[in-house]
Amino acid sequence: MWLTEKDKDGATGLYPLTDAEPGEDEDLTQSYLAGVFGGVPALLEGQIARRLLVAREAGAYDGTGERADRAGRD
């Protein structure tokens, strides 16, 4: 996952989530929404959950939140 964040001059920086070094048991969704990794999202309440539900119903994600087709994995 890649995150973007604007600096004080309006330039956008791009960096991978792995640079933030999330903990193994960390709830990535909650941490992301809380702005722990920077790139603070501007989302309405429930927007991510609705999109994940639609993706899961379409078969893109399994019950664990992982991509069902394992796309993008080594």
Mean pLDDT: 75
User: N-to-C terminal Cα separation, in Å?
Assistant: 14 Å
Order of helices and strands: EEHH
Helix content: 10-25%
Q: Low-confidence parts, pLDDT < 50 over ≥5 residues?
A: none
Radius of gyration: 14 Å
Which structural class do the helices and strands define? Answer: alpha+beta
Shape: globular
The strand order across the widest sheet is 1-2
Instruction: Give a quick account of the main beta sheet: strands, pairing sense, barrel closure.
Output: 2 strands, antiparallel
Tally of DSSP helical segments = 2
Q: How many β-strands, per DSSP?
A: 2
Strand residue content: 5-15%
Key features?
single chain, 74 residues, alpha+beta, two-stranded antiparallel ribbon, 2 helices, 23% helix, 14% strand
